[in-house]
From TrEMBL:
Keywords: DNA-binding, Sigma factor, Transcription, Transcription regulation. Residues 116-167 form the RNA polymerase sigma factor 70 region 4 type domain. This is RNA polymerase sigma factor. GO terms for biological process: DNA-templated transcription initiation. The lineage of its organism: Bacteria, Pseudomonadati, Pseudomonadota, Alphaproteobacteria, Hyphomicrobiales. Pfam families: Sigma70_r2 (PF04542), Sigma70_r4_2 (PF08281). One of its GO terms (molecular function) is sigma factor activity.
């Protein structure tokens, strides 16, 4: 740590890397669950970085590190307990209570709208329909869609633009009530 304080970057990187197993061990002794120990490690490493100027080279480094790690482990435990008190994991509880705001008529209207959209998609030229299916419905990136369709990115963009323009005009002519 003294070399790191003097500006030796390699020594500082090695120090941080070598601290990780000790930090995890301290967190484990404090009772931090395994899935939260990496959170403790990150907090400790950030604290070391911010407080490295406070380390006294005449004193043992591991004692200084141990105090920081214990305090950060306690912080993570407190944060975890607070979250556990607020959050409830009961997936079966949702089955017992119906949604009071649910509107069955809305589901029927949504089905009608999706039918109109499917019909409008079917009326598009194949190249435009392919662009909409890959880029919008399958949510592929432009690069992925270009590879999948064996077409250029520019051609896909043009076809998508034309398809959306055609769909807007077709759907605007029909009665639209989402």
């Amino acid at each position: 740590m003294a070399a790191a304080q003097a500006g030796d970057r390699a020594a500082y990187e090695a120090l941080l890397r070598d601290c990780v197993p000790l930090i995890k061990a301290i967190a484990g002794r404090q009772g931090v669950p395994r899935d939260r120990r990496d959170d403790v490690v990150q907090d400790v490493l950030l604290t070391i970085h911010r407080a490295r100027h406070t380390y006294d080279p005449s004193r043992p480094f591991t004692a200084w590190l141990r105090v920081i790690a214990e305090r950060r482990a306690i912080d993570v435990l407190r944060r975890t307990r607070r979250n556990d008190l607020r959050e409830v994991h009961a997936p079966l509880a949702f089955d017992a209570y119906p949604d009071e705001d649910a509107d069955p008529a809305r589901g029927v209207a949504q089905t009608e709208v999706s039918g109109r959209v499917s019909e409008a998609l079917a009326g598009l030229p194949p190249s435009q329909r392919e662009a909409v299916e890959t880029l919008v419905l399958q949510e592929q990136t432009l690069t992925e869609a270009a590879i999948a369709t064996r077409r250029t990115k520019v051609a896909l963009k043009v076809n998508l633009h034309r398809a959306l323009k055609t769909l807007r005009s077709k759907l605007a002519r029909t009665e639209w009530t989402p």
